[in-house]
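On clarity, I found the account of how folds are encoded harder to follow than it need be. What matters is that the chain and its backbone geometry are given together, residue for residue. The format is easy to grasp once an entry is in front of the reader. For illustration, here is how one protein appears when written out as sequence plus structure tokens.
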Amino acid sequence: MLRDLLKRTSDIEMNRYSLTRRDALRLTLGASLARLIPFKLQASRPVPSASQLAWQRDELAMFIHFGVNTFTNREWGDGKEDPAIFNPTRLDARQWARVARDAGFKAMVLTAKHHDGFCLWPTKTTRHSVASSPFRGGNGDVVREFVEACRFENLKVGLYCSPWDRNSPVYGDSARYNDLFIEQLTELLTQYGPVHEVWFDGANGEGPNGKRQEYDWPRFWGHVRRLQPNAVMFSDAGPDIRWIGNERGVAGDTNWSTQDPSVVTVPGMSGDAVMRMLQDGDPNGTVWRPGETDVSIRPGWFYHPAEDARVKSVDDLVEIYFTSVGRNSKLLLNVPPSPDGVLHDADVSRLTGMRQRLNALFAENQTQIFRRSWRPTGRSGILELELEGARPVSILDAREDITRGQVVAHYSIEAENAGTWTTLARGTTIGYRRLHRIPGVTVSRLRLTVEEGLAEPVDISLRAWRG
């Protein structure tokens, strides 16, 4: 009977309401009985949904910050901008998408509305939008052009809609503004086809009435899930993917994709416990909520002419790849269009260089031909690879099969050459992917030892690249 109840509970759409299986079981059985079932005795550890898995396997997404701030040369607008300033005379969303695709990105996220409240689509909820601008003669729709460009280049679509709205006269009147925000989400999620990622932050302020807006996050999340059931939602509190805790492009050296949802319950929370949960995750977490690492290619998020000479170098971008994707995260790299509506040549050049460098680093897999042995020992295990002769190696690439969850808590990687074993790297979590850059070494055998796991590790893989 209990087994049947657990199975039925697993079918409940727990992620839709940020419920853990334990919470759902409590609803099914009653609190008194659920307390008798500790988490570690549940059927399995948290695992990603199909949408979460596809999201992480994409590895790279491009953020597009574009709006009235692009024309005022500001980072945060105040909502008092004249829509007439928005007029990108050469807007080319196809260029954005083409550059992203050529650089190896698989998705793009557009700021459909930033904190200034200016909407890049002809919304019915406000006149502070492209419909009041001279762009395309007042008939423009940047969101539509963006979506169509993504579809043409086979990129997944993501949309960011800021809950903070410094233009709305009802912001601060919480119930009325929440209704308006729901209307905006409805427009974005019903008029443009499938959306892969819906991006929220926790920015908040006071409205014209002097009152601080109280967002109805459960309502927002539930609305997105109903309209776009296959989309993943990003925020500090997920519910599907989380912020990694900084905007430097650096995920935690320890990075669990599991979270305790009681620590970060809504976006915008602060404190040491919150930051630890965002950066490191929780090995005993009850929900699968992997981290997204967002960082800008420039010092600012919107385009500023003074920053044309301050675009991150190819070396910087490659290092960010290793500290994000290479630490069990996904990279969301912001590349802001200029007032003309195109990506600047300096940014495009750096992206091209990044792709060329990554292609070169991962061109020669030195473990394609090998003898493999795996010896599990309970919650630990040893993977050994015997190569076909001595091979030069400078990048180690370890992966877990996250379709079964994340279990590795400590590991080491050693190499043997001429009868001598040498430790090349040590770490805590592996997850989807863990990359180590090491001084070049020649090896004939490799050994990955799982020293501690939260369950029996399975399907650990190890690749070694020449670099």
Observations:
- The longest helix spans residues 174-190.
- Residues 200 and 294 are 13 Å apart (CA to CA).
